[in-house]
Write a structure and sequence with these properties.
The structure is a single chain. This protein has 387 residues and is an alpha+beta fold. Helices cover 28% and strands 26% of the residues. It has helices spanning 10-22, 47-54, 58-64, 99-108, 115-119, 153-164, 245-248, 285-292, 332-347, 353-376; strands spanning 2-6, 27-31, 40-42, 68-70, 72-76, 84-88, 148-152, 169-171, 175-181, 184-190, 200-202, 206-209, 224-226, 234-240, 252-258, 261-267, 272-278, 298-301, 305-307, 311-312, 315-317, 323-324. The radius of gyration is 22 Å and the shape is globular.
């Protein structure tokens, strides 16, 4: 089988590496297109499944991807101004107390310890910038499960390319046109290279669209549905150097509520990734930049929503081309894991396209609700955006 992957970002290279690992006899071609900007990314525990599947140890991953450990997401000025709470990135949960018991205690006694401290107490030291190591007295806790990562996207792509994709045919070009036959792709045509007589036609049995929200392949096969309830649509992104690495390299992603959205702080091994996600309906870019506080930044526009179908005919959309929900809970790589799992099952005939599309749709709707809850249960009601 010949696989054609279009895109040069994280999802494209993760897909190429996974195909090379899972199906070593497949012929894989990757059409890179534009060079990705490369920023600091934050993951969730779902990402661990990909690392386990690929056989990548923490030691190798941390070194080659310039990554740091992440124990939780820290939310500041969300529940109310001046308050902080941690959402743990853990899978080991205390079981001698039920969630219902904690909810009853919290309703009757407001001073009840936070959810995270009760059920995943390892996050109690995150505020001190610390992460526990495995120890018999730390129960429940397992460093191999109860963490995720902050990583540098460019380093991750380079690591995947050199470690797993040596047999991949790489075309450093852009897709010029796509030829369809009903609900299937016949071939794609890429721009002429420096040594080509003309545009090159690329044929495949299965096409993977990793072109982001452009949806260069899937766009003509599956319409985009907006999630109108999520108001943020713009991000200002920058990276800054450490001024005090010992203090600033903390084991959590920080999300701080702002007047028209929120800012992130992601500490990778070599730099700090920063961004301000806001709604252009409620704040002008110039005002957002002033509130953000950094002179140099890149502007990223995005739409919250999904393709009505992630898999159509012989085309699968993976990554942001399939759907995107603003990055408040670092859901992008988690969604990648879900669509890849469904794709493998479909290739092996363990499910059909409709089952795949249904499960991806349900996962997207679940994540949409989670993000909406962050805003709807927030108490920062002093601006039109939060109201």
């Amino acid at each position: 089988m010949k696989i054609v992957i279009v895109g040069g970002g994280t999802s494209a290279w993760m897909t190429a590496a996974a195909f090379c690992k899972r199906f070593p006899d497949f012929e894989v071609t990757l059409i890179k297109g534009d060079t990705p900007s490369g920023v600091g990314e934050s993951t969730t525990p779902h990402f661990n499944q990909y690392l386990q599947f690929m056989g990548i140890t923490d030691e190798v991953f941390l070194k080659n991807v310039r990554a740091t450990y992440k124990s939780s997401s820290r939310f500041e000025d969300f529940s109310s101004l001046g308050e902080v709470f941690h959402y743990p990135n853990g899978q080991s949960v205390r079981t001698d107390i039920t969630f219902h018991q904690w909810m009853q205690a919290k309703a009757l006694f407001p001073n009840t310890p936070p959810f995270a401290e009760v059920f995943m107490p390892f996050v109690t030291i995150a505020e001190q910038g610390k992460l526990p190591l495995n120890h018999p007295k730390l129960t429940p806790y397992d460093l191999s499960k109860d963490r995720s990562f902050h990583l540098d996207a460019k380093s991750f792509i380079k690591f995947l390319e050199t470690s797993f994709c040596k047999g991949v045919e790489i075309l450093d070009s852009k897709v010029k046109s796509v030829r369809y036959d009903g609900q299937r792709i016949k071939h794609v045509v890429v721009e002429r290279g420096p040594y080509d007589n003309g545009p090159k036609t690329v044929y495949g049995d299965l096409y993977i669209d990793c072109t982001g929200q452009a949806g260069a392949l899937i766009g003509a096969l599956s319409p985009w549905k907006d999630y109108e309830g999520i108001l943020t649509d713009t991000a200002l992104v920058t990276r800054t150097e450490y001024t005090n690495k010992e203090k600033q390299m903390v084991p959590y992603t920080n999300a701080k509520g702002m007047s028209a959205g929120w800012t992130w702080t992601i500490p990778t091994r070599d730099y700090i990734s920063r961004g301000y996600v806001f709604s252009s309906k409620f704040q002008k870019e110039s005002d957002a930049a002033e509130e953000f506080g950094w002179d140099e930044y890149k502007v990223v526009k995005f739409s919250n929503g999904r393709r009505l179908r992630a898999w159509v005919g012989n085309c699968i959309s993976i990554g942001i081309s399939q759907g995107f929900i603003e990055p408040l809970e670092a859901t992008s790589l988690g969604l990648y894991e879900e669509i890849c799992r469904q794709s493998w099952d479909g290739i092996f005939g363990l499910n059909d396209w409709n089952s795949c599309n249904k499960r991806v749709r349900l996962e997207m709707e679940r994540l949409q609700n989670i993000i909406l809850w962050h805003y709807q249960y927030g108490s920062k009601y002093d601006t039109p955006f939060w109201e």
